[in-house]
Design goal:
It is a single chain. By secondary structure, this protein is an alpha/beta fold. It has four domains: 9-97, ADC-like domains (N-terminal domain of TfIIb); 107-171 and 391-549, Rossmann fold, CATH 3.40.50; 219-372 and 557-579, Dimethylsulfoxide Reductase, domain 2 (3-Layer(aba) Sandwich), CATH 3.40.228.10; 599-724, Barwin-like endoglucanases, CATH 2.40.40.20. Helix content is 30%, strand content 16%. It has 24 helices and 27 strands. It has a seven-stranded mixed beta sheet. The two termini are 39 Å apart.
Length: 727
């Protein structure tokens, strides 16, 4: 364990990469493209408030436009989401707009798939070809022959259209990787989930627990800002992570546990609280069911056994458990975001929820707020919404899971495949299998800003407007109080022949005669309709600099609150999971051990990149142009390796990385694992900066363990061995 380093809030911001001034603000003219239409506004400077799209945090920003060019982005002050702060990715946003590799025109493939040989066509031809293939497939094979990979705000309208076409094979990587397991766990326990970003009471918490959450590296600035405020107010921070991450280095207690043993640690904490009567008896008696069964189940995890399973000392486990009890109920057991780790992830997340309940945190100051009785405009009751979302999560063979879509492609059951706003060649394991499966589709269309790997496989490519050139959906931001309504506004008109996603999907809907929500002539009319729920107009958000504060939500009274579960209470023993023929209490299943000479491959995020979407950005790549492999220093010494050496990685099934990676040797990682930042190793040769830079962690993942409850595939049960590059 280690104490905090004493860094100030400003220093912690800088350590986490928020001090974006470290990025060189080079002239955008160097190596940039000239966008059409800019000449008309020479010598004019204006400020345009909008919502950033460089990562899922969606900060409120203001663009400075000079001489028809976006010069910079800055945080829009006087808001309680991100205030005046902006991260390095937001500062680098103009380089997305002026990327010389960006897609400019609709194109059709004229060479083999993957060759990048295209021919420019008109929008009319592109829309006609796609809509004709969709219609023919629907008539000949039905909607089950359609599949779509679509994620992010720009994909909302194409998902809406595919749903109306009756297509069930619509995969959203954000849902699969971040929300599905978590919703299954929290809905089965509380009947509600904490949301994304999580709705937790940073302002009043006394203790915060992070399990594998790379705050400061997976940088979501609005939430990170609130987290830092809690640290300034003295909240105790416990981080359980096999690696000393940026945030672990700032913790009061860093538990460097064995990878895959998180559930054992949680069950050990639960048992300790129950055995020593350190839980909130009155809270559990009033609001929960299943205490006796939980007590009996958790008794199998005494301190000594948990220490053996986790590699931690009994003293460290006991000390952290006592800190939780002393801080209760103002404790946040953070639900995290990315969740498909080892295959027992629903159990791990269930254990997190149960631990929070034992501490009396849900519905209490400093813990996890209860949801409102109803969301604006929602027709379904909280109980009905809970049932619908839980039913969606508890489908291990759901057709929307990526694994099921890949199987259907391999079996030639899918004829038409679309891809919009996500990159399955990086978001899912084994891109070699993905490539072979995609080649079996009769027709593929892709919509993107730059020529990514999905575009190389497509028959028709649609150039999408960047987030600085389009509007997106109105969003209710409930993670802050009072809640905000935000709307993205275009800073410039779309360059070349790029189009906004609403326009593109509406053209398809007109040809297909479908799309009730796409009947409005342009996206602004659709947004005006969406805003009627709040009795607001789009001009209200324009005047409010892309946001409007809503009245503070009345927090439900815990004494009167009925949890939207089957029983109306917190279910320590889940009836929903029992009815789904799953274990109603969290189970710990030790993950497979690495073969001799191999290390477990862990992966994570960078404060300078967003998954795989920013590796062609000039300024960001100038700061971090490739990833590094973290390796324990004692292990490295035994292998005769040191920091800066270039090494080649090979996984347990013989898959070898396509290039070497630079080694980073440190005592800040356990000796049984290695670590890579995700998102590098692009294989599209048309991405001039991203191509062949770094190593793709997914290319070393040939095994993906299925979660038995949700069917989501876990990615951290792959192992690699290391060979030093020959000099």
């Amino acid at each position: 364990m280690s104490g905090k380093s004493g860094l100030s809030r400003r220093a912690l911001l800088k350590a986490a990469g928020v001090a974006a001034a470290a990025l060189p603000l080079q002239s955008l003219q160097a190596g940039a493209i000239t966008l059409p239409g800019g000449e008309a506004s020479l010598s004019e400077e204006r400020l345009v408030p909008t919502v950033c799209g460089m990562c899922p945090a969606r900060c409120l920003v203001t663009a400075t436009v000079r001489d028809g060019r976006v010069i910079s982005l800055a945080g829009t002050g006087d808001n309680h989401l991100n205030g005046s702060l902006i991260c390095a990715r937001g500062m680098a946003a103009p380089d997305l707009l002026y990327d010389p590799d960006r897609l400019k025109y609709p194109m059709k493939r004229v060479g083999p798939r993957g060759s990048g040989q295209w021919q420019r066509i008109s929008w009319a031809e592109a829309i006609d070809v796609i809509s004709l293939r969709l219609e023919q497939t629907l008539r000949r094979h039905g909607p089950d022959a359609l599949a779509l990979f679509a994620a992010g705000p720009s994909a909302a309208y194409i998902k809406e259209l595919f749903t109306e076409l009756g297509a069930s094979r619509v995969n959203d990587s954000h849902y699969e990787h971040c929300r599905c397991n978590r919703e299954a766990a929290y809905l089965a326990t509380f009947g509600f989930d904490p949301g994304a970003p999580a709705r937790v009471d940073y302002e009043r918490t006394r203790c915060l627990v992070l399990l594998g959450s790379h705050f400061g590296e997976n940088l979501m600035l609005p939430e990170f800002r609130r987290f830092m405020d809690s640290q300034e107010q003295g909240a105790h921070l416990i981080v359980a992570d096999p690696r000393r991450s940026v945030i672990a280095a700032q913790s009061d207690e860093h538990l460097m546990l064995k990878p895959g043993s998180d559930t054992a640690l949680l069950l050990g904490w639960i048992n300790y609280l129950l055995q020593r009567d350190l839980f909130d008896r009155d809270y559990i008696a009033a609001h929960a069911l299943g205490l006796d069964e939980l007590r009996e189940h958790a008794a199998a995890y005494p301190l000594e056994r948990v220490a053996e399973l986790t590699g931690l000392s009994p003293k460290a486990i006991e000390q952290s458990a006592r800190r939780l009890a002393a801080s209760a109920p103002a404790v946040i057991i953070h639900p995290g975001r990315h969740s498909n780790w080892y295959g027992d992830d629903v159990d791990r997340l269930r254990a997190q929820a149960i631990l929070a309940a034992l501490l009396g945190a849900p519905g209490r100051p400093g813990g996890m707020p209860l949801p409102g009785v109803n969301e604006p405009g929602a027709e379904a009751t909280p109980y009905a919404r809970s049932r619908q979302r839980l039913a969606r999560a508890l489908q291990p063979d759901s057709r929307e899971r990526a694994e099921e879509i890949f199987k259907d492609l391999e079996a030639d059951r899918i004829k038409v495949l679309g891809c919009w706003g996500q990159n399955p060649f990086h978001g899912y394991p084994n891109p070699y299998r993905t490539s072979l499966a995609w080649r079996r589709a009769e027709f593929i269309f892709a919509c993107d800003v730059v020529p990514s790997e999905p575009c190389l496989m497509a028959d028709i490519i649609l150039p999408e407007a960047t987030f600085l050139e389009r509007s997106d959906r109105v969003e209710l931001r409930r993670e802050v109080e009072p809640p905000l309504l935000t709307a993205r506004f275009p800073v410039l008109p779309p360059a070349f022949e790029a189009r906004d996603p609403y326009w593109i999907v509406r053209q398809l809907s007109i040809r297909l005669g479908r799309g009730r929500g796409l009947r409005y002539p342009e996206v602004s009319s659709r947004l005006e309709h969406d805003l009627t729920t709040w009795r607001l107009r789009l001009d209200d958000l324009r005047r409010g600099r892309a946001f409007v504060s809503l009245p503070a939500a009345a927090e439900p009274q815990l004494a009167e609150f009925r949890f939207p579960t089957l029983s109306g209470k917190i279910e320590l023993v889940s009836r929903d999971l029992a009815e789904a023929a799953q274990a109603p209490l969290p189970q710990f299943r030790p993950p497979p051990e690495p073969p001799a000479g191999y290390f477990r491959l862990l992966y994570g995020r960078s404060q300078l990149h967003t998954l795989s979407s920013t590796q062609n950005n000039r300024r960001l790549m100038s700061e971090q142009g490739e990833n590094e492999l973290w390796l324990n220093e004692e292990v490295a010494a035994g292998l005769g390796m040191g920091s800066g050496d270039r090494v080649l990685l090979e996984n347990q099934d013989g898959l070898t990385a396509l290039r070497t990676v630079r080694l980073y040797v440190s005592r800040d990682i356990r000796p049984d694992c290695v670590y890579l930042v995700h998102g590098f190793g692009h294989r599209s040769h048309l991405l001039s900066r991203a191509f062949h830079q770094g190593v793709a962690d997914g290319s070393l993942m040939s095994r993906a363990t299925a979660n038995p409850i949700t069917g989501v595939r876990a990615l951290r049960n792959n192992f690699v061995r290391i060979r030093k590059e020959r000099s």
